[in-house]
Amino acid sequence: MIKGVIFDVDGVLLNSMPVWENLGELYLDHLGIEAEKNLGETLFEMSLEEAADYLISHYNLEKTVEEVVQGLNKEVEDYYAKRVPLKEGGRQYLEEFRERKIPMVIATTGDRKNAEAALSRLKVLPYFQGVFTASEIGSGKDQPDIYFAALLQLDTEPEQTWVFEDTYQALRTAKHAGFKTVAVYDKANDKNLAQILNTADIYLPEFDDFNVFWNRVSEEEKEQLLIVE
């Protein structure tokens, strides 16, 4: 039975990819500059420093890299604080877990301030017993440290704890560490969808009817008991 749940934030609870896909365009728009077509695709794989350097050189900005990075970060902060929405159906899952007295925590590679600002505005932050970030733990989700830190807060065992993630790397890490895994679809991870499907214990193309998910969990646990016996 599920004794605890660990939720990722970006791409799982929050539909936050638009800000990252359109960050350069949002920044230029505030400067009164029209962005080139497909700028988001160009910048998406870059670090903020690389993106800033690109914007300075391609748009002849009379700014330093540090100034542009600050501007980009401000766009991100404003988006999380004022605009980013919950994934549709996500609130129902949080309410159902709380109703069943199943403790929940956050484990994110994102910024604590942005995550807490968005979740607080959306009135779901109180659902969670803690927020763990990769920067504070000291390692990303290619290592299981953040999940084990969350586990101490939940006071559960890995096999009793379900991790909700959207990326293949995070799902693989959690799975190999002994956690049960739920893959939540996000368009940003389409290129790894086959690997995600082959890794996760349960795949959610969306947060659909919670009772359907709960029945799937029961089926997974019955199958695991059969394997052990």
From TrEMBL:
The protein's matches in PANTHER family, at most eight in alphabetical order, are given as:
2-DEOXYGLUCOSE-6-PHOSPHATE PHOSPHATASE 2, PSEUDOURIDINE-5'-PHOSPHATASE
Asked if the record carries the keyword Hydrolase, the reply is yes
Please identify the protein, giving its name as recorded.
Phosphorylated carbohydrates phosphatase
Q: Which UniProt keywords apply?
A: Hydrolase
Q: Which SUPFAM superfamilies match?
A: HAD-like
Q: What is its EC number?
A: 3.1.3.-
What is the superkingdom listed in this entry's lineage?
Bacteria
Q: Which InterPro entries match?
A: HAD-like_sf, HAD-SF_hydro_IA, HAD_2, HAD_sf, PGP-like_dom2
What GO terms are given for molecular function?
phosphatase activity
Q: Which NCBIfam families match?
A: HAD-SF-IA-v3
Pfam families this protein is in? HAD_2 (PF13419)
Respond yes or no to whether keyword Hydrolase is given for this record. yes
Q: Which Gene3D superfamilies does the UniProt record give?
A: HAD superfamily/HAD-like (3.40.50.1000), Putative phosphatase, domain 2 (1.10.150.240)
- Bilayer-spanning residue ranges: none
